[in-house]
Amino acid sequence: MSDFLLELSKNPNARNVIKSLGLPIPMPQALARARGPWEERPLANQKVVVGVSSGAQLAGVIAETLAKAGADPLLAGPGHDEALWQAPGEAYGRPATTLPDPAPERLIAHGVVMDATGLSTPSDLGALHDLFHPLVGRISRSGRAIVLARPHLASGDPARAATQRALEGFVRALAKEIGRRGATAHVIYVDEGAEARLPALLRYLLSNRSAFLSGQPWHLTASAAKGGGTDVEVPITRPLEKKVALVTGAARGIGAATARLLAAEGAHVVCLDRPEDDGPVSQVARELGGSVLLQDVSAPDAGAKIAAALREAHGGVDVVVHNAGVTRDRTLAKMKRDKWDMTLDINLGAVLAIDEALLADGALRDGGRIICLSSVAGIAGNMGQTNYAASKAGIIGYVEALAPTVAARGITVNAIAPGFIETRLTDAIPAVIREVGRRLSNLGQGGLPRDIGDLVTFLASPGAQGLTGRTLRACGGAFIGA
Ligand code: NAD
Which of 149, 174, 218, 398 has an alpha carbon 20 to 30 Å from 293's alpha carbon atom? Predict the structure, then answer.
């Protein structure tokens, strides 16, 4: 179902009329989204302002990442080590320039990135104000604000812990302030030893493939072993070439969009859905040159059958996307046991059973990826969804526990918690609740299936080796939940 207000807001005349009449109608900003496959230079000719704290540790990585992605870096404030910027600037023809103080009136920047790793005491946090206060109004529509940090407990120093943890609160609040412009904000906590895993995530979050993600912390670790090749030399285009990906529930909605995006990056996609969905799932598989697997994921022998099919046809699998899911909503007082069981079996039990089978016989290859669909309902709970919320919260616990057990093989395990995504699942919500659900995000709109597919594709790529055991929200910064 289309979002009427979003459509209306794309018409500049309608926008102006509503604004000039002062009508209390929210006008969400249409989000800039990528078209086509991953590009060499997703930030070509985009201005990105960079600030550093004193003692900053990641400026060299930022310099390399921005130059390689085609951005024009503008260095703001004190403390820059210009030597760090020289070689990448020359290698990629993107020399950094110094941003005058005050910044030129007409400056509009795609992004502002701050290396805040050197901030160690509460008074140091003034550096956030120094950088962002003059620039916050200069961040473009669908722009980005990104803060780089160190895990707050890493140093054992309470003052430094408070200071680094403060960055998360700052970013969550900033995301709300800039969200109506379609702009987003993130903090990335980088473990010591995981610095080489930062470029891929930074590039992704600055690109318009992360349009519906906002206001959350990301944690990069070195815990999962390298999945082949060096960390820094991960492929930038066609990152899934020669990979085999299984997507469950691929007939429609998020699963179909995900299958298309994985295939666009080179993966052979095995599209799985229930036997009664043969028609739509075969259509998706045909369209992207993939194959079909008809299987109810909650059948007792599903894991063994899926593992055998993947081994036989492809020798194994590299990426497993547990997307198949159902809702059977009722208040607990009215919920029948069969609806409870069905939801838990499909959304949670089947995920564990399939992974167990794939891991037991080695069908999931080294350097592989397990990506599960959780939900914001699993983080925050939702009226009438005790069964669904339990299943989706169970996924969060599962990825945390499984990730360390497969890290030595370079396999990463993560979950995505979508907020309100425009699919038949949300079309089925009563109109008024649906309208409220859409607006309850920093971006004032629902996401599209491809927003989840873009995040799955990033997590599936070799560059995402630093993310494991995490549940990542894809909710436009929903106002509910932690
Ligand atoms: P959808 O109903 O459009 O698609 C789900 C797919 O899963 C369907 O093709 C269905 O046939 C398949 N499926 C269901 N039971 C199955 C089974 N037993 N075996 C095999 N396939 C089965 O749903 P969607 O909105 O695209 O959601 C996809 C996932 O994202 C689900 O796990 C859902 O819980 C999660 N999610 C969606 C939203 C949202 O706003 N749409 C929000 C949070 C989480």
Answer: 398
Q: What is the DSSP letter of 376?
A: H
Of 57, 3, 50, 1, which is closest to residue 26 (Cα–Cα)?
A: 3
Phi and psi for 74 in degrees, rounded to 5? -120, 120
Query: From the CA of 468, how far away is ligand 1's center (Å)?
Result: 23
221 neighbors 465 (Cβ within 8 angstroms): no
Tokens at 196, concatenated:
């080489």
Task: Using alpha carbons, list the distances in angstroms from residue 333 to 390, 391, 433.
Answer: 16, 18, 21
Question: Looking up tokens 């201005």, which residue turns up?
Answer: 47
Answer yes or no: do 426 and 287 share one domain. Answer: yes
Query: CA angle, 36 as apex, 34 and 39 as ends, to 5°?
Result: 80
* Phi and psi, residue 230, nearest 5°: -90, 160
How many Å lie between the centroid of ligand 1 and the Cα of residue 457?
17
Phi, psi at residue 356, to the nearest 5°?
A: -60, -45
Element spanning 78, H or E: none
Peptide bond just before 158 cis, omega within 30 deg: no
The 10s digit of each residue's pLDDT in 302-337 is 999 999 999 999 999 999 999 999 999 999 999 999
Q: What is the pLDDT of residues 353-399, one digit of tens each?
A: 999 999 998 999 999 999 999 999 999 999 999 999 999 999 999 99
Query: What spacing in Å lies between the alpha carbon of 222 and ligand 1's midpoint?
Result: 32
Q: Which atom of ligand 1 is nearest to the CA of 276?
A: 11
- Residue 408: partners with Cβ closer than 8 Å, 6 or more residues away: 225
Q: Looking at the annotation, which residues are catalytic?
A: 388
Q: Is residue 110 located within the same domain as residue 214? A: yes
Tokens 């009722």 correspond to 330
Pocket-forming residues, ligand 1, beta carbon under 6 Å: 248-249, 251-255, 273-274, 277, 296-298, 323-326, 346, 373, 375, 418, 420-421, 423-426
For 304-349, the three-class secondary structure string (H helix, E strand, C coil) is: HHHHHHHHHHHCCEEEEEECCCCCCCCCHHHCCHHHHHHHHHHHHH
Q: What is the CATH number of the domain that holds 173?
A: 3.40.50.720
C-alpha 211/C-alpha 349 separation (Å) is: 31
172 belongs to a structural domain: yes
Please tell me the distance from the alpha carbon of residue 101 to that of residue 82, in angstroms, as a whole number.
17
User: Quick check: 247 and 318 in contact, CB under 8 A?
Assistant: no
Q: Which domain holds residue 47?
A: 42-220
